[in-house]
Amino acid sequence: MEKSLESKFAALKSKGFQIDLTRGKPGSDQLDLSNEMLSAPVSSQSSSGIDIRNYGEPLGIPEARALGASLLSSPTETTLVGEQSSLLLIYQLILSNYLFGLKTPWKDQGNLKFICPVPGFDRHFRLLEDFGIEMLTIPLNGTGIDLDAFHALLAEHENIKGIMCVPRHSNPTGDTYSDENIISIIEAGKAYSEEFLCIFDHAYLLHDFLPSPSQTPVWELATQLDAKDQVAVFCSFSKVTFGGGGLAFAAAGKKLFDLLSRQRASMIVCSDKVNQKRHLEFLKDKAGVIEHMKKHAEIVRPKFEVAFDALDALSPEIGTYQKPTGGYFISYDAKRPIAKRVIQLCKEVGVLITPAGSTYPHFHDPLDSNIRLAPTFLGVEDLQDAMEVFVTAIMLAHQELD
Ligand SMILES: Cc1ncc(COP(=O)(O)O)c(C=O)c1O
After folding, report:
1. What is the per-residue pLDDT across 4-18, written as a single tens digit (0 to 9) for each?
2. Is 29 part of any domain?
3. Is the pLDDT of residue 2 over 70?
4. For the stretch 6-38, what's the b/e string if a residue is b when 16 or more beta carbons lie within 10 angstroms of its beta carbon?
5. Which residue from 71, 84, 94, 123 has its CB within 8 A of the most atoms of ligand 1, so it is best to mutate?
6. Which of 22, 212, 242, 266 has the fewest Cβ atoms surrounding its Cβ within 10 A?
7. Are strands 160-165 and 197-201 parallel, antiparallel or unpaired?
8. How remote is the CA of residue 86 from the centroid of ligand 1, in Å?
9. Distance from C-alpha of 326 to C-alpha of 328, rounded to nearest angstrom
10. What is the pLDDT of residues 259-280, one digit of tens each?
11. Closest CA to 129 of 145, 117, 113
């Protein structure tokens, strides 16, 4: 057995692969779905008569804000359209709290902390690290965060400023938080401190590719719980139209919204209204966005199925994963501490995988077991090859520790 696994690995090595499975980017066929936007004429006026070619409307043109509000189920008055990156809007919200805050600037408070569900998104960790914010990790359990761990951290620590969640098809685990989970997060955060900030990064709000659990919109729950000033929700069109060329949206309670808008006004006179109008003409409304996302799902689903088939061949004694029903990632948990070794082995064969540890703050996966796979960018053939390499590397690394 040992010999055949090693000879299989050597045979894969001799194929000279050059495959990059590192980042969750849309495939070019997905980008093609929005090509019409590149050539369609764009009206120079918004539907309310604003000249989109000029400065003005720092919160976005009304119809784009209304589209964002319909996607996030938030009021248009407290929903803004930023540039093309929701990550930038999240950064700006943290910055505005850091510099000014709703009561006292965070920068004057010292020893700031944030709760981060893990495995999570590396750029969230980087962002918090930029502000010197200590990251307290809690596990995800399939339908959201581990609430016992959450309550324990809140009881144990002072000066926790908030939590960063990806409530639908979480990156990378695919968790879709239950309503009960989201309600408990908001309730406990509110009870902890009136400054506690629940950040819901809805990057995959619209990205189901298999039947997925339904969710009450976060904004509705925040309203029911009378916690609007503790909640901010973000999403973007980075994986709807063009990566880095879409629109980003933020919704928050009035006080947070004003804080964010004030911060943004120091950075930018107004965002790209031409792109907002272009998107409106192409996607039209929420129904148009949903229809468009069905086309993405048709392209993405078969790729995930290739990955599922390969991973299902691995024994649960070696590792496990949770099948996502949307989003861009698969999170594989090896039973043994082999993540670094697996990624090294894959690299030797010419398959690049997201570096081990990326799904944890400071690149520190305490068990060295979590690996993030991103199947969307590759064509099906490359993906099949990459998955064969991955599965072989997992078995080999597992066996090396016998
Ligand atoms: C959870 C999450 N948030 C945000 C982003 C980036 O979104 P945007 O391009 O809108 O900044 C990503 C992209 O991978 C993501 O996975």
Report:
1. 899 999 999 999 999
2. no
3. no
4. eeebeebeeeebebebbebbbbeebeebbeebe
5. 123
6. 266
7. parallel
8. 7
9. 7
10. 999 999 999 999 999 999 999 9
11. 113
Residue 172, sorted as left (phi over 0), alpha (psi -120 to 50) or beta, turns out to be alpha
Nearest Cα to 296, choosing from 342, 242, 346, 229? Answer: 242
Same domain (yes/no): 102, 177: yes
pLDDT digits (tens, 9 = 90+) for 39-91: 999 999 999 899 999 999 999 999 999 999 999 999 999 999 999 999 999 99
Q: Are residues 18 and 90 in the same domain?
A: no
Q: Are residues 390 and 276 in the same domain?
A: no
> What residues does 134 pair with on adjacent strands?
113
Q: Based on the domain organization, do 243 and 327 belong to the same domain?
A: no
Nearest CA to ligand 1 atom 2: 203
Residue-wise pLDDT for 270-312, tens only, equals 999 999 999 999 999 999 999 999 999 999 999 999 999 999 9
* Structural domain includes residue 33: no
Q: Whole domain around residue 342: which residue ranges?
A: 2-24+289-400
Protein residue closest via CA to atom 3 of ligand 1:
203
Q: For ligand 1, which residues put their CB under 6 angstroms from it?
A: 24, 85-87, 121, 166, 171, 201, 203, 236, 238, 248
Same domain, 8 and 68: no
Count other C-beta atoms under 10 Å from residue 152's C-beta: 12
- What three-state secondary structure class fits 379? coil
pLDDT at 3: 61
In a domain, 31, yes or no: no
Percent of the chain with pLDDT over 70: 99
| Same-domain pairing of 52 and 92 | yes
pLDDT tens for 207-236 read 999 999 999 999 999 999 999 999 999 999
Q: Beta strand pairing status for 113-118 and 330-334?
A: unpaired
The predicted structure's pLDDT at residue 1: 46
User: Is residue 200 assigned to a domain?
Assistant: yes
Please tell me the distance from the alpha carbon of residue 322 to that of residue 301, in angstroms, as a whole number: 15
